[in-house]
């Protein structure tokens, strides 16, 4: 039996919003932080992989979700930020948040959501198939409940935060940081940042997902119009 990736016909953008609408302009506005965000050395120009939930297989569009480790588009962090703020994934996000059963919600998310590998550009989602490290790490804060919005404000005020957005479930927070993989391992940065966030937000360590230390960690992409970008870092 052929692997799924060999049967996928095309690596094309399968969603309603044309990918051209979230590309950076060729002549960005030349003032302040906005121009700096488009500079080639900006962390917002780091290249990451976005893997499609929906792919064309044997002539039909089907949802593979997290099972798709092959069909993807390389995007900058800034593009992914605009993608999350748009309504491209609004239907999936609203549907997920309306599912009350935890098991059903988990199954729906794994099948219907695109995901990104924030720590790098991958040929295939596998640690051995990384092409370039993005110098980014995504820390996942889970099940924050009624504390979510207070924690988000605390995180967004912190000068180390590069980007943040609410998780697809609406109960957690994803926080993006810059790292230097030439100095320390991903696991070392995870350990430091998890302790840092735990103290910053008065969180128990179990609220921070340990799998964030994996370079090929998949992060599902929601619709979050309130996603935050720290332009002061550029």
Total helical segments? 7
Q: How many strand elements?
A: 12
Describe the largest sheet.
Answer: 4 strands, antiparallel
Assign the structural class, choosing from mainly alpha, mainly beta, alpha/beta, alpha+beta, or little secondary structure. alpha+beta
Computed over alpha carbons, the radius of gyration is 17 Å
The N- and C-terminal alpha carbons lie at a distance of 49 Å
Unreliable spans are: 1-9, 25-33
Counted up, domains total 1
- Bin the strand percentage: 15-25%
Q: What's the structural blueprint in terms of helices and strands?
A:
Blueprint: H1 4-7, H2 32-37, E1 47-51, E2 54-57, E3 60-63, E4 72-76, H3 77-85, H4 90-98, H5 102-112, E5 115-117, E6 120-122, E7 130-133, E8 136-141, H6 148-157, E9 163-166, E10 173-178, H7 186-200, E11 219-220, E12 228-229
Antiparallel strand pairs: 1-4, 1-5, 2-3, 5-11, 6-7, 8-10, 9-10, 9-12
Describe the structure.
The chain is of the alpha+beta class. The protein has one domain. Helix content is 27%, strand content 21%. The protein has 7 helices and 12 strands. The strands form 4 sheets. The chain has a 4-stranded antiparallel sheet. Strands 8-10-9-12 form a 4-stranded antiparallel sheet, covered by helices on one side. Strands 2-3 form a two-stranded antiparallel sheet. The longest helix has 15 residues, at 186-200. The radius of gyration is 17 Å and the shape is globular. Mean pLDDT is 85; it is low at 1-9 and 25-33.
């Amino acid at each position: 039996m052929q692997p799924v990736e060999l049967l996928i016909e095309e690596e094309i953008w399968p969603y309603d919003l044309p990918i051209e609408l979230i590309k950076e302009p060729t002549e960005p506005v030349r003032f302040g932080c906005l121009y700096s965000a488009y500079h080639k050395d900006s962390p917002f120009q780091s290249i990451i992989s976005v893997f499609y939930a929906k792919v064309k297989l044997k002539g039909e569009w089907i949802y593979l979700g997290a099972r798709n480790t092959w069909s993807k588009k390389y995007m900058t962090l800034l593009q992914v930020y605009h993608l999350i703020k748009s309504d491209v994934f609004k239907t999936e996000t609203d549907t997920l948040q309306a599912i009350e059963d935890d098991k059903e919600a988990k199954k729906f998310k794994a099948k219907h959501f695109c995901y990104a590998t924030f720590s790098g550009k991958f040929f295939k989602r596998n640690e051995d198939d990384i092409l370039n490290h993005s110098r980014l790490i995504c820390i996942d804060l889970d099940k924050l409940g009624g504390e979510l919005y207070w924690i988000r404000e605390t995180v967004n005020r912190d000068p180390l935060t590069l980007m943040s957005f609410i998780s697809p479930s609406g109960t957690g927070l994803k926080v993006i940081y810059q790292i230097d993989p030439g100095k320390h391992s991903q696991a070392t940065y995870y350990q430091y940042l998890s302790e840092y966030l735990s103290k910053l937000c008065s969180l128990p360590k179990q609220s921070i997902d340990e799998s964030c230390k994996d370079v090929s960690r998949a992060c599902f992409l929601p619709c979050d119009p309130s996603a935050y970008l720290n332009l002061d870092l550029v």
